[in-house]
Amino acid sequence: MPARRSSPAPRRGARHGRHGRLGRSEVVRPPLPPLDGRLDRFEITVGSAVEYLRGTWEELRDVRFEIAAMPAHDRADGIPLWRADPAAQRVTLYRVPIERLLPKGHDDAAHRRMAVESAVFHAAAEYVGREPWELGPDGRDH
Length: 142
Prior knowledge:
- By secondary structure, the chain is of the alpha+beta class.
- The chain has a domain at about 40-130: 2-Layer Sandwich (Zincin-like), CATH 3.30.2010.20.
- The chain is built from 4 helices and 3 strands.
- β2 and β3 form a beta hairpin.
- It is elongated, with a radius of gyration of 26 Å.
- The mean pLDDT is about 80.
- It comes from Microbacterium commune.
- This is Zinicin-like metallopeptidase.
C-alpha cells in the first residue's frame, strides 16, 4: 500500500485577505471601473480625432485643442459648436451644443461620436482655411 501524502490544510491568510475577502492586496488596489461617462467618451473621441489630424497636418501640431462646456455668448446665427482662434493657436470645442443639438432620432452613441468627430474636423478645417473633407485620408491628393 502506497504511503498517503497529506497536503497541509490551507492557511486562512493565504487564500483570503485579512477580513476574509478574496483578491485584495495591500500593494495593488482593486481595478478601477472603466471610463464610461459622457465627458470621458467626449474627451476620448476628441483626443483620437486630434491625434489623427496632428499626425496628418503639420499646421495643427502646435495648436491647442480645448473643451469647454458652453460658449460664453450666443451668436446671431445660433449657438456655436467650436471657436477657431489662429492668433492664439487654439481651437475650443463646446461639448454641450455638440452633444445636445443632434437631430431627433440621432442621439445614440454612434451618432454622438460622429457629431464630435465632425465638429473636430470642421473646427480644424476652419483653423487651417480648408474644407473639412480635405483633412480626411484622401485630402492630401487634391
